[in-house]
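SUBJECT: A protein chain and its fold
Encoding: whole-number codes for local backbone shapes
Chain under study, with its fold:
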Amino acid sequence: MITKAWYRIDEEEQVFSPNLLIYPSRIEQNIQTMVNMVGDPSKLRPHIKTHKMAEVIQLQIKYGITKFKCATIAEAELLGLQNAADVLLAMQPVGPNILRFYTLISKFPQTKFSTLVDNEDSLNEIEKVAKERRSKASLYLDLNVGMDRTGVKPGKKAAEIFRKLADSKFLEAAGLHVYDGHIRHPKIEDRERECDAAFKKVLDFKHHLETEGYPVPEIIAGGSPTFPIHAKRQNVISSPGTTLLWDARYGGAFKDMDFIPAAVLISRVISKPAPDIFCLDLGHKAVAPEMDFPRVHIYGLEDCEQISQSEEHLVLRSTSKSTVKIGQVFYAVPIHVCPTVAKYPEGLTVEGGKITGKWKVAARNYSLVI
């Protein structure tokens, strides 16, 4: 008896391609794995940028997760609409987004919102609005421990910013935020060694602040690659995101983690322009194109080379005699799931091979109402 593959749906002929398939029971399994790794859901602040879906937020709340992290005001809105208790906007607001951040606070009073700061100019702007609105803002100092994307390096300047934040009558010093997304060694031993070295700078900085009389209430650290390391630390909140849906890149690189793919693309062969070349309907607009080839892991086509991609087309070369037929269905796990999900307005939910409904990718745009 041949067992049907977990990702395959019964009504293939009724589902157009390309399309996004979501597997709720597998998402639930990933949430349980996250909670088991930290031992206590209060030590989690998962990022919602991977899925941007209300239903996934509700699944996490079901397992006791109350704190969340997001990158856009729209994602923060979605969390507010789901009555999330505690939301960190992990993108330093500038320009009109400062006022939008305060609109969030007033629109969703049941949710505690906080955000990041890494320089005095932004601190001053946020403090100015806080004073005008008579509404205290909760801020984390964003530290740069080597990624060189955002944040201020632990040291004298960072201490000056934190002291000014803590001394303000209109701001609340919530703690430190550390994202170490540059640490991606496949071997957990190498990842742990580099992660610990980077985090030591954070602990030393925290100790320095506290000896000066400035308490640091909380440290939020890491993403998905360093999650297994930060999950073991005491008094540290971990903030993985990709762990909820997982993807082929992380699944191939980090064998030490037991997460499983929970989002799949359904695709079809649309042309065979040469005996050893065929084309799928998985172009730039259907799957994240920023990575090198391969862009997806295609079940059943592991021996084929992905050679080019354009807006609507993904071209493959067969390394053996190809038996694919025009119209044939294939299933693919994205190499990078986060920007891939954002390309779809909704995903079809699948349980036991059956389409059970649709989940809206609600925060794929940059604004819902605010």
